[in-house]
Amino acid sequence: MSEGLFAEENINDIFFSRHDEAELLGSASHHPFILDGKEWPTAEHYYQAMLFDNDALQDKIRSQPHAKAAIASTKWRFFQKKKDWKKLRQVLMTRAIYTKCKTHPAVAKCLLETGNKKLVENSAYDYFWGCGRDRRAENTYGKVMMNVREKLKQEQDV
Questions:
Q1: Per-residue pLDDT tens for 5-53?
Q2: Which of 31, 21, 20, 77 is nearest to 51 (CA)?
Q3: How many CB atoms lie within 10 A of CB 94?
Q4: What is the model's pLDDT at position 153?
Q5: C-alpha torsion sign, points 12, 18, 20, 21
Q6: Which regions of 68-138 does DSSP assign to beta strands (E)?
Q7: If you average pLDDT over every residue of the chain, what do you get?
Q8: Distance between CA 52 and CA 22 in Å, rounded?
Q9: Per-residue pLDDT, 66
């Protein structure tokens, strides 16, 4: 049996897009939550805003009508990001997703119903958050989701 390009891929893996507003597991779904004393419309709003120290900019990002607009509002501000933003990004996204799940039981239920399946952020262009075009990228968002799922399972067992 020959191995294909995606030999590591399992037919049971769950693929999704974090930017799909209709996807409960995505960071763009409109499931508001309160974190750090403010209400955030989506996990993506929180993540994008926390990359900056500027309170006014954070509020501008938070007030955007949807996740894509929140992302767009940060595009030309690369040099204003926190110096250690790359070290923080996984922690920030984890905090947002965990809080979203704790605030919205339907989201937590959806995540828990994935069982022990591998979760894959199906982005051909994002080699940090997604699986990349060749499925060999970091899939950090999928890992964040699986870690949050484990935490939720542990809390259920207590």
A1: 454 567 889 999 999 999 999 999 999 999 999 999 999 999 999 999 9
A2: 77
A3: 19
A4: 98
A5: positive
A6: 119-121
A7: 93
A8: 27
A9: 97
Decide: helix, strand or coil at residue 91: helix
Structural domains of the chain, ranges and CATH numbers in brackets: 14-157 (1.10.357.40)
The pLDDT assigned to 158 comes to 75
CA–CA separation, 48 and 60 (whole Å): 11
pLDDT by residue (tens digit) across 93-107?
999 999 999 999 999
Question: CA-to-CA distance for 25 and 111, rounded, in angstroms?
Answer: 7
Question: Is residue 2's pLDDT more than 80?
Answer: no
CA-to-CA dists, residue 74 to 24, 49, 66, 70, 116, angstroms: 24, 8, 13, 7, 35
For residue 9, what are its two tokens? 């891929």
Q: Rounded to whole angstroms, what are the CA distances from 109 to 3, 112, 148, 152? A: 35, 5, 12, 10
Tell me how crowded residue 63 is: count the other CB atoms within 10 A of its CB. 13
Furthest CA-CA distance within the chain:
58
Separation of first and last alpha carbons in the chain? 45
The reported pLDDT for the residue numbered 119 is: 97
Amino acid at 44: E
